[in-house]
Amino acid sequence: MIKIKKLLKLEGVEFNQFYRLPLSNPINKELNDCLLAYAYECLKNNENIDFYNPNLIHYIRATETEFFNKKDGEYCEKEYAASSNYIEIMNLLRDNNLIDDASLETFKESLENTQGHFRENDIGEFISASKLSSWISGEVEYGGNKYFKLDGSWYVYRESLDQNLNEYFKNFDFENFAPTLPLKSWIKKNEGLYNLSFKNNEGFIVGDRAYLNYIEIADLIKVTDDKIYLYHIKKGLGQDTRALINQINNSARFLSYSEDEESIEGLKSYYKSISNKHYSGGEITIKEKRNIKTLSEDDFIKLFKSKRKISFVFGYGSNSELSIQEEIIASNSRIAKLSLIYIIRDMKRTDYELLFERILLDE
């Protein structure tokens, strides 16, 4: 709550547009029922929603998540679950008898009985166990008022919040915060295959699902003579926006706060992770002036220790004819809009620039 209050003060969005409901407020149960009904409808329609462990800032660093039902002993595990969407996780849980979606009532009951917890490394303890009913965030209307749930808390907001948020984005010039050269079109591929398609493209290193201290530094790394672009990419402006923003925040924090020795050891570990994930455990390759060259561990470290400016890129695939500004304003997700304002504010406090790119989605 304090973070959101500071955010809205700093960015000129009036704080009195919404407030958090006390956990003891009896309306919370009705709001949760409305949200679970919406989640069930989305599942039946194969539509994704915001579905993350409430401890999101650590959950996106999780290497392993375990879903379990203490009552009947059923369980299953998922590596890097934060990279999977709501439908993918629901399908996994259904296949392992942890979710019953035969009716709304059985769905709600299984969300109450099934929990999820995670760990941030392969030998660590599982933490932050919580019922899956608390993993769902979203927005509902009830009794003539509008509410949104974020990380376990309900907020009520006024109609004027939309006007305040949209006014902020109307005054933000996205065209001045875009990479010099756009990425190629996103053609009939999932996110992983799209990222992999940049392997040995001019200046690119594939970093998708490669981790540094359990943080995904970038889906794609692009190296130029004077810059290093760290791309974080998702399809669409929706339920994945908050996770994408938290990835950028975690990545920027690590690069900002690491001491030289820690940073070098971290970059060595990151090089190995990229190598194992995308370059068969050997040296990373990169195309430079139309020639494929190898990039040793030392070369990789020197890149990040050079005077090249590091830029984070918030990239999303879309086939909309609207501008980025218009598309964000048209979005119905107030959570996504608040998250975007949050990352814009936070990145101003670092030495890195934040850029935005909409990738042409051709499906």
TrEMBL record:
Q: What domain of life is recorded for the organism?
A: Bacteria
The UniProt entry, under Pfam families, shows:
DUF6119
Its name, as the record gives it, is Uncharacterized protein
Q: Whose protein is this, by species? A: Chryseobacterium taiwanense
Q: What does the organism's lineage look like at the top?
A: Bacteria, Pseudomonadati, Bacteroidota, Flavobacteriia, Flavobacteriales
